[in-house]
Amino acid sequence: MNVEEEVGRLKEEIKRLGKLQSDGSYKVTFGTLFNDDQCANIFEALVGTLRAAKKRKVLTYEGELLLQGVHDNVEITLNPLTPDAAN
């Protein structure tokens, strides 16, 4: 899987596990993503995929590097989709 594919899959998983917000974004905690069995099977390097998605401005979270345990309660926000980027 290339980076774009992984970011796309990450968006799907955040929608599956997260909560839809009134602005169209989705929020999920890092711990929820990290501890989910399905995510563990999809992403060989979840933290790397999160960083790639953040760099592409697909999602936001505080800090640069998220670590299991220490950052389990950090909220990850999947930015609202614009009509031309809805994939």
TrEMBL record:
Record-linked Pfam families: Costars (PF14705)
InterPro entries cross-referenced by the UniProt entry: Costars, Costars_dom, Costars_sf
Ranges where the Costars domain occurs: 1-79
GO process terms (BP): regulation of actin filament-based process
Origin superkingdom: Eukaryota
Family: Belongs to the costars family.
Protein's UniProt name: Costars family protein-like
Organism: Cicer arietinum (Chickpea)
